[in-house]
């Protein structure tokens, strides 16, 4: 069963209001972070390839590589599958990321079909592809598919934001944060938006 889909800022605001009523920490955070972003993107092969490109590099580097891939017409599955090693290297992809990109291109994922399957099946399908871990799959479900009740507890910024907002002695582990997030269902992806926004506000205050 597919749950609620976030289509608009009104959906995000609805989730934020629900979370603020349920959890005092979110109620404290919401006035500080202001309006939360929609953060929706088009689903499909390019969205996942862009996530692979962005792994373990700076935002600026990821954007530069993606711009080169776009300029070379290599952001669709057929083009990625047919690209030479030289082309992918010229675009800025490492050997490993080139392998991941080709694996994704050859995986035969039914991206339209993913829209109609439960969150757990989305993640299961995506992590079967080399180069796509649970974090990438959950981020895809949240922002490309708009799933309202998906969380990404392996994200370090979410872990640190939870530590600060909830006054924890240490940054929670992925397992611990996943358990915490169960209380935020059915709006866990909005809870993530709150925590990411709170992280930025807190770091700006600290001058980091």
Notes on the structure:
The structure is a single chain. The protein is an all-alpha fold. The chain has two domains: 9-40 and 149-206, Endonuclease Iii, domain 2 (Orthogonal Bundle); 45-141, Endonuclease III, domain 1, CATH 1.10.340. Helix content is 62%, strand content 0%. The chain has helices spanning 9-22, 24-33, 45-53, 59-71, 77-82, 85-91, 95-105, 111-114, 119-127, 134-143, 156-165, 174-181, 188-206. The chain is globular.
Task: Give the gist of this structure.
The protein has helices spanning 9-22, 24-33, 45-53, 59-71, 77-82, 85-91, 95-105, 111-114, 119-127, 134-143, 156-165, 174-181, 188-206.
What is the helix tally?
A: 13
Query: CATH H-level name of the largest domain... which superfamily?
Result: Hypothetical protein, domain 2
Q: Which percent range describes the beta-strand content?
A: under 5%
Distance between the termini: 42 Å
User: Which stretches are low in confidence, meaning pLDDT under 50 for 5 or more residues running?
Assistant: none
> Compute the gyration radius: what is it?
18 Å
Q: How helix-rich are the residues, as a percent range?
A: 55-70%
Tally the beta strands: 0
Q: Examine the coordinates and then state which fold CATH places here, giving the name of the CATH topology of the largest domain.
A: Endonuclease III, domain 1
Domain unit count: 2
Which CATH C-level class of the largest domain is it? Answer: Mainly Alpha
**Order of helical and strand elements:** HHHHHHHHHHHHH
């Amino acid at each position: 069963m597919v749950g609620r889909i976030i289509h608009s800022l009104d959906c995000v605001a609805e989730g934020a209001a629900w979370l603020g009523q349920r959890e005092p920490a979110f109620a404290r955070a919401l006035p500080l972070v202001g309006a939360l972003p929609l953060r929706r993107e088009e689903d499909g092969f390019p969205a996942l390839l862009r996530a692979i490109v962005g792994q373990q590099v700076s935002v600026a580097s990821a954007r530069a590589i993606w711009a080169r891939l776009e300029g070379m017409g290599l952001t669709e599955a057929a083009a990625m599958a047919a690209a030479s090693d030289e082309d992918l290297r010229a675009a800025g992809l490492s050997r490993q990321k080139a392998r991941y990109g080709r694996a994704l291109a050859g995986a035969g994922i039914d991206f339209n079909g993913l829209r109609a399957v439960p969150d757990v099946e989305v993640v299961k399908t995506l992590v079967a592809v080399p180069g796509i871990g649970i974090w990438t799959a959950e981020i895809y479900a949240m922002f490309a598919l708009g799933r309202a009740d998906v969380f990404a507890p392996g994200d370090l910024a979410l872990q640190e934001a939870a530590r600060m907002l909830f006054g924890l002695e240490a940054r929670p582990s992925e397992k611990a944060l996943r358990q915490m997030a169960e209380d935020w269902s059915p709006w866990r992806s909005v809870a993530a938006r709150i925590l990411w926004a709170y992280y930025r506000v807190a770091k700006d205050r600290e001058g980091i």
